[in-house]
Write a structure and sequence with these properties.
By secondary structure, this protein is α/β, with parallel strands linked by helices.
Length: 456
């Protein structure tokens, strides 16, 4: 049973914090350090396996690189960050075809990119929900299947041993990855992993490891997602049918792990505050698995201006909706990165699991709310404290205040009198904002420059 955070001693409050152990590997869990160390020891030392499997790196002039493979099998937000890497990769290899091995939930991110020629979809992998076995064999099968494309360069942007094995099985002439993920003897080129560095800058550092010379000295452009016109047309029809007024707010209710989720009671109170103060159109979004959470928040009741579209939108349609929104509010999740990639203001509610400096969305008008706790960063899927202090400490009043500042609107009620009876019937208790501190950091603005080429 989870313990109480407020009753714990200061020393015990900090105990759930996890930091990557000192050493060459980036993993948090020590057992993975031991496994990778053993495999690397066997690969490099026994029978000189590393030299036999990996010939010396061949320098290929950029004009001779015909095909490049990027492996991106993890989360939607990670795929959005990789979009920011593609223009720099295209600049270095202007004549190469770029292929991506993606997962079903992030493939749409690359399908519309003007830099990507082909997207392979692996439905069974380590990140697929409900698949605990068989994914390693599926990755090996994909490695052999990709050999027929004869890639000149293959890149593992995540840095994990199974993905490095996939790169080697693909037969790519140069295989680029991180030196802290294990299996380095299967790579021809390795980049040094810097803990805490922003993920977009880490992607660009991978390209520098190829030894093609320094990149141009200019700020990196944020990831950019080209919304398909078909998705735009569908969202215009949906918004017309909903007769949605302005401002239009999109709320993503869930996150990739329970430790990143904001409490349902907080979402319920935030809905009431936003309705009273701004009378907006509010659209709830998420996957099909998030529908019970949406029903728990709304209580299956009709809220003025609130529309539930959880599980009803594809990734391109969600991007088209976010493109029309005046503000997107959500946790540390893929839709926050997607909203930033289409130029929409974002208010991200960060838990204490990860570093904000490393995983914040890149884009214009991105703000982050985080409640400081001594156990951060913990890198956990589930909070060991029953209060979940890093998320429950961010109050609805503080989020509503930050949203009002971003929208530039008055905090006075702006709804017509005809809506007062419905508002008075809302099951919402509005509590004053506590005096506890919550850090709010606006991400430094960077130019939102779309990559060259037509958008889908």
């Amino acid at each position: 049973m989870p313990s109480s955070f407020h009753n714990a001693s200061p020393r015990r409050k900090a105990r759930p914090r996890r930091r990557p152990p000192a050493g060459r590997y980036r993993y948090v869990r020590r057992r993975w350090h031991a496994v990778c160390a053993l495999i690397d020891w066997l690969g490099w030392r026994l029978w000189r396996v590393g030299r036999r499997l990996t010939p010396p790196s061949r320098h290929l002039p950029p004009q001779q690189v015909q095909r490049i493979l990027i492996v991106q099998l993890d989360h939607l937000g990670d795929a959005i960050i990789t979009l920011g890497m593609l223009p720099a990769l295209r600049e270095r290899f202007p004549s190469a075809e770029i292929h991506v091995l993606a997962a079903p939930w992030n493939a749409a991110v690359f399908v519309t990119s003007p830099h990507v020629a082909r997207v392979h979809i692996s439905r069974l992998n380590r990140f697929a929900r409900g698949h605990r076995t068989g994914w390693l064999w599926a990755q090996c099968w994909w490695g052999w299947r990709l050999r027929r494309w004869r890639y000149d360069l293959a890149i593992d942007v995540r840095g994990e041993l199974p993905l490095v094995l996939l790169l080697w099985l693909s037969g790519a002439r140069r295989r680029l990855g991180w030196d802290g993920g294990g299996g380095g003897f299967l790579l021809t080129d390795r980049a040094a992993f810097v803990p805490g560095r922003p993920e977009l800058l880490s992607r660009l550092a991978l390209i520098d490891a190829l030894g093609l010379g320094p990149q141009p000295a200019r700020p990196p452009a944020p990831p950019w997602y080209g919304v398909p016109e078909k998705a735009r047309r569908k969202i215009r029809v949906i918004l017309a049918a909903l007769d949605a007024p302005r401002p239009l707010l999109v709320l993503h209710l869930a996150a990739g792990t329970p430790a990143k989720c904001w409490p349902a009671a907080h979402w319920r109170e935030l809905l009431g505050r936003l309705i009273v103060e701004h009378a907006p159109a509010i659209i709830l979004v998420g996957t099909r698995q998030d529908r019970p959470l949406a029903h728990a928040i709304t209580g299956n009741a009709t809220w003025p201006g609130v529309h539930d579209l959880t599980g009803a939108l594809t990734v391109p349609e969600l991007a088209a909706l976010l493109e029309q929104a005046d503000l997107a509010i959500g946790g540390d999740s893929g839709p926050a990165h997607l909203a930033a990639a289409v130029g929409t203001p974002v208010l991200s509610l960060f838990s204490g699991t990860n570093l904000v400096s490393q995983w914040r969305p890149w884009g214009r008008h991105v703000s982050v709310l985080q409640y400081p706790v001594p156990c951060s960063p913990c890198f956990r899927r589930h909070c060991p404290w029953w209060e979940h202090p890093c998320m429950s400490g961010i109050t609805p009043a503080q989020v509503a205040q930050a949203a009002a500042a971003i929208l530039g609107a008055s905090r006075q009620p702006v709804h017509p009198l005809g809506r007062l009876p419905a508002l008075l019937s809302l099951p919402v208790l509005l509590s004053p904002a506590p005096s506890e501190r919550v850090s709010m950091a606006a991400v430094p603005a960077v130019p939102h420059i779309p990559p060259s080429g037509p958008s889908a």
